[in-house]
Amino acid sequence: MTIPTEHDDMNPQPLPSVRTTLCVAALALLSAWAAPSAHAACWAANVAEPISNDGLPIGHASFVPLHKAMDTLETMARSNPGLDALPEVRLRLKRQVMDSFAPGSHPRDAALHVGGYGPKTWGPGECEVIPQADRLGAKAGISFFINSPLAPLQKWAADEQLTAYLEGERGEPVHGWPVYRGCAVLTANKQVWWLPVSVGEMLDYYAREQQRRIDDWDRRHRRHFDEPLDLAAAEARAADLRKLDERAADAALLVARQRKAGEPEYLRKLTEARQLLVAELDGLRSTRAALAPAELAEPYRLGSGRYRLPAPGEANKALKRLVKLDPAFGWDGRQRNRVQAIQVCPSELDKNPNYGPPMRQAVRALDFARIASLLN
Question: What is the span of the domain harbouring residue 102?
């Protein structure tokens, strides 16, 4: 404690003016508002898509089982220390309920997205996020997908007989649950809902695709062979036109004669182009015929050889597989709001050390036993 001396009493320090005091206080408040926080620990108001993509309101009574599951997931997300420790973000939860891609055989999809939004998306409120935040994108976050069979897959090829997907890269399991494309996949029996596409199936698809190219070529070019230019008829039309416009008649006649003169070469080139298409189809069929039944039954992996088969030096490499949906998985399309699968996906931000690794750790910190208890 400092005791004032007589000298201090005799020579008091000048007091700041009222204007100076107010300016300092205003600057302090402005700085506090403008400076980004060191970490989040701040949740913006939840948002939700107002309707499902089949026109029902997000709060429709039939969606209650999905919302109950999302309530639990939201509670877990809000208590996740990894999310709260993210630097310079504001956290926000968003709910979606969607129709299935195959309503007759699959349940509804739903998703709960936890986004950590950077300063460019902040509004003026204490923990506000602007409406355009999703367009600008989140810096980090976790997404929970419910009944979303295509979330870990990417469509690769499709026709009337086969729809093939690129299987997400297999990762290290999380608490015993398989991981594909960074997402932990939870089902009642830990079985995934897809099967590998075989080499034979994929070669058959390529053959059908090549036959479609040949058929398309025929539709576009066959008339040139079936209906060659009738030069005599073109000359007659030019003669009729000459009665009205001699210059136009000369031009039309020149074009017709040039086209007729070049017709054999044009048809030759068309023939060669079709022969190349047919040769490719023959090569596909020959390749398939040369493979043993066991080779045709192997999972199709994307290599660098012909027809994207593995080259000789790729036999032991971890190549990506093509897969198809397993009809025996047992999706319940009658109870469309029943929770049958959950995927937990961190943001794919591996190149950003501030957000990628922390999000993977945040996922590992979740109570997966509790998440699995939501399956029914």
Answer: 37-156+166-197+324-372
